[in-house]
Each structure stands twice: as C-alpha cells, then as structure tokens.
Amino acid sequence: MSSFPDDVEGYYAELAERRGWSAETSAAIRSTVELIRDLDRGTASRTYGAAVDDYGTDWLYEAVWHEREWVVVRQLGVGEDGEVRRYWWQRLEDDEGMLTDQSLDREDWGLRPLTREDFYTAWDDPGWSLSA
Question: Of 30, 66, 89, 110, which is most buried, counting CB atoms within 10 Å of its CB?
C-alpha cells in the first residue's frame, strides 16, 4: 500500500479513531484517498466549475475525466463568513463536510465555467470570492 505524508497519515488515523471506523471502513477510505490522489496527480483531462449555494457559500470544483465521468478531485467552499473548506485527497472529509462523491454534472449543478487559473487563485488565496 502507498504511504502518505506523516500529517496525512495522522489525520486519517485520528479521524478513524474518532469516528470508530472498522478496519474494513478504514481500508475503503484509504483506497478512495489513493484513487483521488492518483487522479489529482495524473494527466487526464480536467474541468473547472463554480456555483454559489443557497447559503451564500462559493463552491469551486476541479474534476478529472475518469472511467467516463468527471470525478471531483478538489473542492473549495468559501462561506459568506469567510470560513474556508478545502477537500482533496489530503482531507476528504471533516466535521463540516466532505469531497463530493457524485460525478460532476455541470448542468445539474448549475456550474459556471471557471478557468484553471481562477480555481488555483482561489485555492491558494481563499479571500477571493465569486460573489464579491
């Protein structure tokens, strides 16, 4: 099995303990983390999109084409209160939410196009806002 950086290993170990995951659940989560990491690091086609939800949170998505669907590999949420939530292979979930496990559907999700540059501007500097 692939190893993760120590901080990532520690995060998932703590999460597994806190949530009481069985060995099977921990193995399934690890497998998902490895897949998302490999897709994130890979060279497959990518798409980016953005939407504002009913609560005023800006959601930005990066998805990779994999097995005939767009798999979200990075998701960024910035609430009106400035709270930032980043989900990717190093943190698939936390107590506030998780990386979507649904394939990205631009039309159903009402996504606006977003460039790679705009996505990474927001990822690196979450003070950036769609609604500002």
Answer: 89
pLDDT digit of tens for each residue in the chain (132 aa)?
A: 468 999 999 999 999 999 999 999 999 999 999 999 999 999 999 999 999 998 888 899 999 999 999 999 999 998 888 888 999 999 999 988 999 999 999 999 999 999 999 999 989 986 666 655
For the question of whether the overall pTM of this predicted structure is more than 0.85, the answer is: yes
- The answer to whether position 131 is within a domain reads no
For 103, the domain range is 6-124
How many structural domains compose the chain?
1
- The helix/strand/coil state of 96 is coil
Q: One-letter amino acid identity for 128?
A: W
Class of residue 125 by CB neighbours under 10 A (exposed 0-12, middle 13-18, buried 19+):
exposed
Element (H, E) at 19: helix 6-19
